[in-house]
Each structure stands twice: as C-alpha cells, then as structure tokens.
Amino acid sequence: MKFALHPSPRVRSAVRAFFAHDGVPVGLIAIALMLGTYALLGLPPSVPLLIASGCGAVGVYQLDRGLGLSPEDRINQPARTRWMQAHRRYVVATIVGAGALGGLMLPLLRPETVIGGAALGAVGLLHVSPVVRGRRLKAWGTLKPIVVSGVWAAGAVLLPVLEAGYPVTAGVGALGGYRFALVLVNTLVADVGDRVGDAQAGLRTWATRWPVSMVLRGAYVVLGGILIGGVGAVGWGGAPPLLLVDLVGVLLLGGVVRRVQADRAWAHHMAVDAVIAWPLVPFLVMRVGEHL
C-alpha cells in the first residue's frame, strides 16, 4: 500500500500566500545572504547578527506592505494588498515580534555593528516612508534601484565583517560589489513587472523611463560581467573555489530574466526574490565539506 501526503487546497493556498505576499520570507533571504558572506570569507557565523538582521528586514518590509506605505502596490500587487489587509493583525504581530526579538539581540553585538545596522535600517525606512519633505526616498530621481541594492549589499557583506572584527579589504569590497550587482538585477526584474503602478505613483525607475527590452538587455550585461569577473577571480585572483558554487545563482537569475523577457507579467506570479537566497547553498556546501 502506498501512502502519499497531499496538502489540502487551503494549505497550498496558505503556503503560496506566505511566499508571495508575506514579508517574513524577506528576513530569511537576508539571513541566506549573510550566510553566503560567512562561507566565502571563511568567517564564523554570528547567530545574534543573523537573527537581528532577519528581524530588521521583516520589520521594514511588513511595515511597507502592511501599512500601505507604497500606494503603487494597489496597482502592481493587488493580491498582496488584499492579503495584507485581510491579515492585518498577523502583520502587526510580526512587526512587534520582529522588533522585540531583534532588540534582544542588540546587546550581544559589537557597537559598530549596531550603528551600521541602525544606519541601514534608517535608510530602509526613509526609502518607504514619506518623511523627506513629504516624499519617499524611492521617489527622488532614479534612486530606487540604487538604494535597494546598496542597502542589501551593505547589510549582507559589511555587517558580518564588522561583527567578526575582520578588516575591510579589497576582497570584501569586491564581494560587496558582487552582491550589489545581483540585487540590482533582481530589482530591475521586479521593476519591469511594477512599471505601470510605479509610473502612476510618480516613481522614476529605470523600467518606467527606458524600454523594457533595454532594461532586460542591461540586466544580461550585468550578469555576464559578474560571471566573467567571478570566474576570473577564482582562476587568477585567489578567490575561493566556493565562489563557483555561488555563481550558479547568477545563471539562475539569468533564467529569471529570460522568463520575464518572454512573459513580462511573470514576475507577479513567481517569488523571483528567492533566487537571491542562493548564497545559502555555498554555505551548506561548506558545512558538508567540513564534516566529510
């Protein structure tokens, strides 16, 4: 007799909504990016920093999505907007819980790490909240993709380095640039799907100013440059071979760009941000290698 576990439609719907609409998975992505940094730099992971950073990402994204700070979401992500409104108590609970748990971690971190994290969190809040002359930071020129990519790259690379007391070397800078470029491509892909609502909300993203084909070609160019630079860094620059495992994520992101090029609405039906969590894989490969 065969036994199979078949989740009910209600369970499947809840799982899809969690990954498509909820801000909690964003915190998991932040943790995955940091684990990739620890793996590539050979640093011991800081559990308090991982928890604090994950909670910070959850808090910012739940505030943005749950409190309606981004009016363009009503056009770009109507299903997510309805889900957030229907689960408002849960959203508030996750914001409070993330703030409390993250706050408990702060005394366990180095002062410079706390200052750096607070600065990045402030930029994240300014990005989504209309507190700069009544406008959000993302509405100032074409800052949106640059700010998003910069905050994520700095959080993923700089904070673990500060917490470990590791020097900010050229290698650390190169890793930060690598992460920045990957998140930038991810942001461009998301902006292609969000261009209608962004334009109506007055956001001047690259996807609203340039033809979609040009934006996606630019994404291909960035990904190609990352691959060439990454392989060169391993072959001639002294980068760890583990970087080759990390570069598989670049190929996966290229597949996402290709899919969006074929179906521009696809970004709304797939959690494309999950590709950015690929650095978790090199970390797991490293851990398996340590035990062999």
Give your account of this protein's structure:
- The chain contains 14 helices and no strands.
- By secondary structure, the chain is mostly helical.
- It has a single domain (9-285), classed as Farnesyl Diphosphate Synthase, CATH 1.10.600.
- Helix 2 runs antiparallel to helix 3, helix 7 (111-128) packs antiparallel against helix 8 (143-164) and helix 8 (143-164) runs antiparallel to helix 9 (170-193).
- The two termini are 37 Å apart.
- It has helices at 9-20, 24-41, 47-66, 73-76, 78-86, 88-105, 111-128, 143-164, 170-193, 195-200, 206-209, 212-235, 242-262, 280-290.
- The model has no long low-confidence stretch (mean pLDDT 86).
- The CATH architecture term is Orthogonal Bundle
Rg measurement, Å: 19 Å
Number of helical stretches of at least 4 residues: 14
CATH topology: Farnesyl Diphosphate Synthase
Give the beta-strand count: 0
- Which runs of at least 5 residues are low in confidence (pLDDT < 50)? none
N-to-C SSE series? HHHHHHHHHHHHHH
Silhouette: globular
Span of the ends, CA to CA: 37 Å
Could you describe the largest sheet, including whether it forms a barrel? none
Number of individual domains? 1
Sheet/helix structural class: mainly alpha
Q: Please estimate the helix content.
A: over 70%
* Average pLDDT rating: 86
CATH class (first level) name: Mainly Alpha
What is the strand content?
Answer: under 5%
